[in-house]
Known about the structure:
mainly alpha, 10 helices, globular
Amino acid sequence: MPNTSEQSKRSSPLDLVDWLGKRALGVIEHTGTVLLLVIEAVHWFIKSLGKGRVGTGAMTAQIIRIGARSIFIVSLVSFSVGLILALNMAPPLDQFGSRDLVANIIGVSVLRELGPLMAAIVLTGFAGAAIAAEIGTMVVGEEIEALEVHALDPVRFLVVPRLIASIFSMCSLAVISNIVAVAGAMLVSRLVLNIPYSTFWGNMLDQLKTVDFWTGMIKAAIFGALIGAIACANGLKTRGGAAGVGKATTDTVVQCLVSIIIADSVFTAIFFIFDLN
């Protein structure tokens, strides 16, 4: 007959507290690992700048691999979102006889929020997972140990190029996302909503300010840093062969998406508090 005291012990509310505590400590530990990796990468980048050995070839290769190959899918998603926004905003605005203000809303929402966010989500799935899998495979294949045996620091030769490429690619993709989303909204506004191009463009320019663009670019740079750092950190701590590589890839996508949303919320709140609107 089962021991009742053992069953109550296993189902004790303390187990939930213990689980939550372990999860919280795990999140804090992983956050610290990512932060230390970023600090070390910045150290190596500054050191390389001082010696004139930045490694532009490796960075260029990563920018092409991470950024250039993401342009099509980012453009497709952004164009679709711009089109959807215009079509969904028209009916509510029609109630106030202000259909032309579709351009005002889309301009601000895309440049401040949706452009960088869409590019970051696509880059997470397209490049973040690939970086984690690539570095994780190197760890499993003992290539990282081979670098260390030859006195080559993995952070300098693997992390720095990917981190810089992620930031640069993210900023570039955010600009592309902004342009394509606005183009999609402008096209559907003209063909379906009967808003002339001149009216759409004029209303959007009247609404937009320089700060709208730069707040979006600040977010894009932060998103790029998060994607690169989290992907590299998960790749470097990969253990357990092919299963470990798969876990690192999955963890990277989930952690990047959560981190991006949290960072977006924090920076939006900061911009609102300091009246950067």
